[in-house]
Amino acid sequence: MPVLEVNHLHKTFGAVTAVEDISFSVEAGEIFTIIGPNGAGKTTTLEMIEGLQTPDRGSVAFGSLDWKRNADQIKMTIGVQPQSGALFDLLSVEENLDLFASFYPKATPTATVLEMINMTDQRNKHVKKLSGGQRQRLAIGLAMINDPTVIFLDEPTTGLDPQARRNIWDIILKLKGLGKTTILTTHYMEEAEKLSDRVCIVDQGKIVSLDTPAALIDRLTKEREVRLSLMDGEKAAEVTEQMALLHPAVVRANREGPTLKIWTTQPEETLYDLFGFTKDRGFRVEQISIREMSLEDVFIAFTGKEWRD
Ligand SMILES: Nc1ncnc2c1ncn2[C@@H]1O[C@H](COP(=O)(O)OP(=O)(O)OP(=O)(O)O)[C@@H](O)[C@H]1O
């Protein structure tokens, strides 16, 4: 049974349709990511699921629990990362955790949470002195304080530098290791691709596509770009290009000086045959790479829009 089921959610604000018929379900232990451009409806969707906004239509169920009948039980089951402004600046990291823990009948020991978010050494630091990344880590710690089974993180890495983002990824993966379910929103494709079991691409309030990152990429195309650099100059590359174009799996090719780019539906086979050819001719291969399609390529294909972080 899914831990979360979202059915036909709708939400409008005046003339703006923020969410239009969003449905999905999330299994226990998954990292489920909602990704989309600014204004796509990610936060509104998340807030309806978290019980912070009431949908105009549609339903949200956590197992057999729903917001109308079981609000108190749901609040014990889920953890919501507070907005960074909801932290108490004049209290220390530990005091913030203790304060949030006091809201619940059963809380995870503060020391455990501090260790999970890698902030044991900063536990006595005042929140106003924390960096952006540390504030976000504390916010995730606060979402964990009631030992929830489902954790909601709304853009936990937006605006952070690459190292701080990676530190947050480590925490999210640790949560997965503990068997927690995480629902994440992000602007960053790379993050969605690295962390998620499944990705839901949202645009203009609707789901454009939903699947595992690998399946989304696969569904788009089986083509891979193979790059081959030859040590024997342009002429050797030209002959190799002509040969490559005769291969049944090769869709197209182009050449810049001694470097060949070949798009093929069977990269391993194409490479094997090309190596046979270059060896026969005595051409030496200097460099070789196979480029995978990225989730970014998928987004552009499904929405027709360029992706901007
Ligand atoms: N309280 C509100 N009142 C009016 N319009 C709103 C409100 N909340 C959201 N909207 C509008 O609904 C649409 C979806 O907003 P939402 O914040 O859910 O998108 P998002 O995908 O989370 O965007 P971002 O990545 O910028 O946070 C936007 O057009 C937004 O302006």
TrEMBL record:
<dbReference type="InterPro" id="IPR027417">
    <property type="entry name" value="P-loop_NTPase"/>
</dbReference>
<comment type="similarity">
    <text>Belongs to the ABC transporter superfamily.</text>
</comment>
<dbReference type="InterPro" id="IPR003593">
    <property type="entry name" value="AAA+_ATPase"/>
</dbReference>
<dbReference type="InterPro" id="IPR050763">
    <property type="entry name" value="ABC_transporter_ATP-binding"/>
</dbReference>
<dbReference type="GO" id="GO:0005524">
    <property type="term" value="F:ATP binding"/>
</dbReference>
<dbReference type="InterPro" id="IPR017871">
    <property type="entry name" value="ABC_transporter-like_CS"/>
</dbReference>
<keyword id="KW-0547">Nucleotide-binding</keyword>
<dbReference type="Pfam" id="PF00005">
    <property type="entry name" value="ABC_tran"/>
</dbReference>
<dbReference type="InterPro" id="IPR003439">
    <property type="entry name" value="ABC_transporter-like_ATP-bd"/>
</dbReference>
<keyword id="KW-0067">ATP-binding</keyword>
<feature type="domain" description="ABC transporter">
    <location>
        <begin position="4"/>
        <end position="229"/>
    </location>
</feature>
<keyword id="KW-0813">Transport</keyword>
<protein>
    <submittedName>
        <fullName>ABC-2 type transport system ATP-binding protein</fullName>
    </submittedName>
</protein>
